[in-house]
Amino acid sequence: MLLCAAAPALAAGFDDCPQFFAGKPPSTSAYGQLRQICLDEFAVLHSGQTKTPIFVAQRLNARMLDKAKDLKRSDKFYAESRLPSADRAQLSDYKHSGFSRGHMAAAGDMSTKQGKAQSYSLANMVPQDPTQNGKPWSQIEQDTRRYIRRAQGDVFVITGPVFGKQRRTIGEGQVWVPDAVFKMVYDPATGQRWVHLQDNQPSAKAGKPLSYEEFVQRTGIRLLD
What was the pLDDT predicted at 182? Predict the structure, then answer.
């Protein structure tokens, strides 16, 4: 997969939510039926081919996370009605699949009831190994929030899947299962940027992040200008 900020937008949408991006939104031509979706607290580039997000973008700060910690989880997953039925994952695709419905924009990041409810859209989900999702990936989400609470201002976070050459799918809808997931953190106040890249396997560990440059070299994915 190659995401390039210089590539033209493939669908209208992100013009309505530029606040979630540090510059031009990344784009890709690697996957089909791409649609840009703006929600209250995050933006999604969704593929009707993979039936998952290609990336999810957020803009977070300490004030928002303070509000988020007092909100209860809804745990009400739903198929995204903004997408054509043929291009979206269904709840039945995940049932008995052995995979979790893995949030890309974490529910724990959401500072409003509406934002938290929207985070349970399947447009924000990829099939994740339950152990990886519940333990080392959860640790990455918590570590990211800890950094943001110490940051001077807004921090941009982009999260998404990395698909391998050997396609794995779940459900009748054939939702693609990623080989790995990533979370990029960019702090414009300091210029720091790094990426957590974690295998979608029960043996995954919450190790040290990669530099942005090393992440690009390993995956070919470019998320920033």
Answer: 98
Q: Is the residue at 32 inside a domain?
A: yes
Pairing of strands 169-170, 175-176: antiparallel
Q: Answer yes or no: is 2 within a domain.
A: no
pTM of the model: 0.93
Name the token pair of 24.
């031009």
| Residue 208 in domain | yes
Gyration radius (Cα) of the chain, Å = 16
Encode pLDDT of 160-182 as tens digits. 999 999 999 999 999 999 999 99
The count of structural domains within the chain is 1
7 lies in a domain?
Answer: no
Full domain range(s) for residue 147:
14-219
CATH number, domain of 24, equals 3.40.570.10
3: confidence class by pLDDT, cuts 50, 70, 90: low
**According to the 3-state scheme, what is the secondary structure of 66-125?**
HHHCCCCCCCCCECCCCCCHHHCCCHHHHCCCCCEEEECCCHHHCCCHHHHHHCCEHHHE
From 111, 195, 211, select the one nearest 159 (Cα to Cα): 195
- What's the confidence (pLDDT) of residue 198? 98
